[in-house]
């Protein structure tokens, strides 16, 4: 990944929608999901949360898992309102390309 896009933050990974989705409704993974996201937001874990993943989580929980739009919006707005520096709004073409290269190099499929 390009260091100028990430600033001085040391990142160990990128949070995918699959980590955010369980935080949006009652399920066995909800507390783990919330705990992990809190660690990321408080910079205990060195991971970025792309804002596009928040939007993606909304679409998954409302379209495929039957969560109400209002409920999903409420949970995800709380996440986005934290103003954590680990929320990452910019995903450039170069960054996406670098992420694909990283995925190939480390055999990451999702």
- Estimate the mean pLDDT confidence: 86
Strand-residue proportion: 5-15%
The proportion of residues forming helix, as a percent range, comes to 40-55%
Q: What series of H and E elements makes up the topology?
A: HEHHEHHEH
Please state the overall shape, judged from the principal axes of the Cα atoms: globular
Alpha-beta content class: mainly alpha
* Poorly predicted tracts of residues: 1-8
What is the number of independent domains?
A: 1
Task: Please state how the strands of the largest beta sheet are arranged side by side.
Answer: 1-2-3
Rg is: 14 Å
Query: What's the total number of strands?
Result: 3
**Helix segment tally:** 6
| Sheet of most strands | 3 strands, parallel
The first-to-last residue Cα distance is 17 Å
What would you say about this model in short?
The protein is mainly alpha-helical.
Describe the structure.
The chain has 110 residues and is mainly alpha-helical. It has one domain. The protein contains six helices and three strands. It is globular and about 35 Å long. The two termini are 17 Å apart. The model is unreliable at 1-8 (pLDDT under 50).
List the helices and strands and how they pair.
Blueprint: H1 3-6, E1 13-14, H2 17-20, H3 30-41, E2 47-50, H4 51-63, H5 69-80, E3 87-88, H6 93-105
Parallel strand pairs: 1-2, 2-3
Entry keywords:
single chain; 110 residues; mainly alpha; three-stranded parallel sheet; 3 strands
């Amino acid at each position: 990944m390009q260091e100028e896009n990430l600033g001085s933050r040391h990142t160990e990974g990128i949070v995918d929608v699959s980590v955010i989705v369980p935080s949006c409704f009652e399920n066995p993974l909800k507390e783990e999901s919330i705990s992990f996201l809190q660690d990321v937001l408080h910079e205990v874990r060195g991971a970025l949360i792309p804002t596009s993943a928040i939007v993606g989580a909304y679409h998954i929980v409302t379209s495929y898992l039957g969560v109400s739009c209002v409920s999903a919006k409420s949970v995800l707005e709380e996440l986005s309102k934290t103003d954590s520096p680990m929320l990452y709004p910019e995903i450039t073409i170069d960054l996406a390309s670098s992420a694909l290269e990283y995925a190939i190099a480390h055999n990451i499929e999702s």
